Amino acid sequence: MRQITGNKLLVRALKEEGVDTIFGYPGACTIDISDELYKQDDIRVILPRHEQALVHEADAYARTTGKVGVCLVTSGPGATNLVTGLATANYDSVPLVCFTGQVARHLIGNDAFQEVDIVGITRSITKYGVTVRNREDLGRIIKEAFYIARTGRPGPVLIDLPKDVMCELGSPDYPETVNIRGYKPNTSVHMGQLKRALKMLKKAKKPLFLAGGGVNIARANAVFTEVVNKTNVPVVTTIMGRGAVATEHPLYIGNLGMHGQYAANMAVGECDLLFSIGTRFNDRITGKLHAFAPNAQIVHIDIDTASISRNIHVDVPIVADALEAVTKMNEYVEPCETEAWVKQIQAWKEEHPLTMKSREQMSPMDIINEMNRQFDEAIITTDVGQHQMFVTQYVQINEKKQLVTSGGLGTMGYGFPAAIGAKLGNPDKTVIAISGDGGMQMNIQEFATAVLEELPLILCVFNNEYLGMVRQWQKLFYGKRYGMTNLKAGALFRRTNGEEMPEYTPDFVKLAESYGAKGIRVKKKEEIAAAFEEAKKNTKTPTLIEFIIDPEEMVYPMIQPGGTLEDMIMDC
Questions:
Q1: Choosing from 200, 258, 442, 469, which is the catalytic residue?
Q2: How confident is the model over 530-571, as pLDDT tens digits?
Q3: How far is CA 33 from each of CA 7, 44, 327, rounded to the nearest angstrom?
Q4: Least packed by Cβ within 10 Å: which of 118, 223, 360, 536?
Q5: Which one is catalytic: 17, 36, 51, 553?
Q6: What pLDDT sits at residue 4?
Q7: CB–CB of 84/62 below 8 Å?
């Protein structure tokens, strides 16, 4: 039998797994893999400008296509630069397979140049991590990695590849099947538990669906909408669950939690049955645990056994994939008598509608409303901060529009590279990235990637000259002591005790143009529509639109950290 190197087997394995795009950054320990990739034409290789951006790009590629995102980086700093992106993907259940170069086996543990124990470093933020010690195990490990990444609760897997192992000759065969002892993801629904939950749903006077990110991950949106229509049960979502049903659906209330809609938080507090699907019940949606859904029995469907009753005790646990469970629900659900309950929720909506005060100056709501008007079909990515919360409150999401955001880790610098990954995976769709002026600068080098790949992204920067979300906390809870949040502060600011500040740095429009992209600055609400229309004309390069926002704009409602869902600050 003709033997081949581990490098050749890796490329063969990627093709067998249906990989068509890999996000890679080269180095000494992966140069032989880069050489093998150079010799073939089936797999597109994307060269970002930083490994953190690289893994975010693979992440959004996976979220928007349903495929596994694939990364290739070198050892040492190349590998450690993946850490934030791995944690982001782990929290949000994104299937990634990340290959890291490693020094030769005899150098491991000797503090060799660019050697780190990346498997040890990332053990708590990956679904599985392993260093390949023997060439004969390489094919099996790669096959297992893709299987683990995409099955059960999806997540990132890391494979560390010592340089000498990859150069060694071995079998050219790649396994066709996987059999991992101790890893048998649940693929069925316990019908006894599900029918018990559906009986409770039928009897409830104030039932409420809580849809988390698991509904979107499982692509269960359409069948879940059918269940909602049949039962007439209202729906709240987590931020990651937004879009589980269309945001225009008459039974959709809104997001719950720290910046959730008043009616949504009130509904959770008053419901007598909370039927939750695909959520971890993290602190940003629950507030104080003892006061969360105090009157409700709780049903929890989740693919991850460890997520059930971890934060909130549930009455009916169901371990199942969201699509499988909701499909079975759709066969058995019956209409529920919810007219009075829906009327009460509507009254809460009318009492405190989700809106922003009308004013002369351009507001984030003005920008997002115009975006809703002009773009019927789009993928919208966000960074993290106030702008993210505004988007999750006001952007319309339905079967033609998808929201991609870092929900669990809250990673600044995610939005721009995520847009690149989404566009590479969905070239025929409009992709819009929304960032703050702080987060945009964290991976701004990716302009080079976007320009060279000829990606007509629309990049919206909400520039309020501050790190807005932290500033909001400082304004509300820290006596307006804006420490470390003013992005114009520096030597001049200190020298003059805050009386003088320079012009904002950078000039985003000039910076975009320096990369070969287009830049537009918008200062008035009357200019918003024209800016989007101009951006749509640009079909080969990104367009950055800088929106000048008042630093005093605040995200409401807001619940003070450690508060309850009923302790909402409606305005200030």
A1: 469
A2: 999 999 999 999 999 999 999 999 999 999 888 887 788 988
A3: 5, 14, 43
A4: 360
A5: 51
A6: 97
A7: no
* pLDDT of amino acid 359: 82
pLDDT lower than 70: segments of the chain: 1, 572
In the sheet that holds 543-548, the strands lie side by side as 401-404, 378-382, 431-436, 458-463, 543-548, 518-522
Exposure string (b/e) for 284-299, b if CB count within 10 Å is 16 or more? bbbbeeeebbeebbbb
Cα 47 to Cα 34, 160, 450, distances in angstroms: 11, 20, 10
**What is residue 236's predicted lDDT score, i.e. its pLDDT?**
98
C-alpha–C-alpha distance, residues 523 and 206, integer Å: 46
Catalytic residue flag (residue 396) = no
Q: From the candidates 67, 143, 163, 525, which is the catalytic residue?
A: 163
CA distance 403 to 396: 9
Percent helix / strand / coil, the chain, rounded to 5:
40, 15, 40
> Is there a catalytic annotation at residue 400?
no
Give the pLDDT score at 543: 98
Q: How distant, in Å, are the alpha carbons of 218, 259, 434, 473 from that of 385?
A: 26, 12, 10, 12
270: part of which helix (H) or strand (E)? helix 262-270
Cα separations (Å) of 136 from 133, 168, 312, 387, 399? Answer: 9, 10, 45, 50, 45
Give the residue from 413, 422, 423 showing the smallest Cα distance to 383.
413
Q: Establish whether 523 is a catalytic residue.
A: no
Catalytic residue among 3, 40, 113, 399: 113
Q: Is 468 left (phi over 0), alpha (psi -120 to 50) or beta?
A: alpha
Please enumerate in sequence order all residues whose Cβ is within 8 A of that of 315, keeping only pairs 6 or more positions apart, or say none.
Answer: 200, 297, 298, 299
Indicate if 163 belongs to the active site: yes
Residue 134's pLDDT is 98
Angle between helices 415-425 and 51-65 (to 10 degrees): 50
Chain centroid to Cα 552, Å, comes to 27
113: annotated active-site residue: yes
- pTM for the full model? 0.97
Q: Name the active-site residue from 16, 114, 493, 536.
A: 114
